[in-house]
Give the backbone structure.
Amino acid sequence: MPTELILPLDVPTREAARPLLKQLSGTVPWMKVGLQMFTAFGTDWVREVADHGYKVFLDLKLHDIPNTVAKTVESLAPLPINMLTIHTSGGHSMVSAACAAQRETRPDLLLLGVTVLTSINAEELHGVGCPESPAIQVARLARMGNNAGLLGFVCSPLEVGALRDELPGKVQLVTPGVRPIGADHGDQARVMTPADAARAGSTHIVVGRPITQAPDPLAAAQAIIAELATA
C-alpha cells in the first residue's frame, strides 16, 4: 500500500481553508484538523471537512489523567474521524484507558500515540529532564504504547526505520517533519523528504506549508504524491 499524504489545515479561518478543500478534493486523501481550528470552530468544522470526501485526522494530542482521556475519546467517537492522537508521555495507564474507550466506542478509529514532537531536538529534550536522544525516547514511548494497545504512532521520519524493527508490521506510522527537497524546514527540527520517509516505512506523511503556501497548492500536492509513488 503506498504511503498516503495528509494535509494539515493549520490556517486561521474557515474562509481560508475552504478553497483548499475544494481544490484538493480527489487528490489529497487526508486532512488534519488540529487544535487551532478545532478550538476555533469545533465539531461542525470536522463534519464539514469530512463532507468534502476527506478522511479526517483529528490531531488533539490528548494528555490528562486516564479517566479524562478515556471519556474524551468516547465524546469524540461519534465524529466522522479516522485518526485521533494522544500523548504517549501520559503513561501506560492513560494510554490503556484511551485504547479501551476507543475499542468500545469506535473499533474502526485509529488511535495514534504521539512520541516526541518533531519540533523537539536533543537540547530541548534534555531541558525537560530526558537525558537521552530523541530516537531513544521515541522507541521507549512506542514500545510502551504498543504494549498498552496502540496500533499507530506519530514520530519523526528519522525514527521510522528503528520503529519498524521493533514494532509489529501492522503498526501504522504517521510522520510530520517531511519536506520536499529545497523547502524551508520551518519549525521542524528532524526532517526527511517524502520519498525517503516512504522508503523508511512511513504509512502516512504530513506536509503542510510546502503545499498551502505554494503558488499552486494542487500542483505541489500532486508532485509530492508522484514522489511517493516512485518510492
Observations:
- The longest strand covers residues 55-62.
- The two ends are 11 Å apart (CA to CA).
- The CA atoms of residues 187 and 231 lie 26 Å apart.
- The beta strands are 4-8, 30-34, 55-62, 83-87, 110-114, 152-154, 172-175, 204-206.
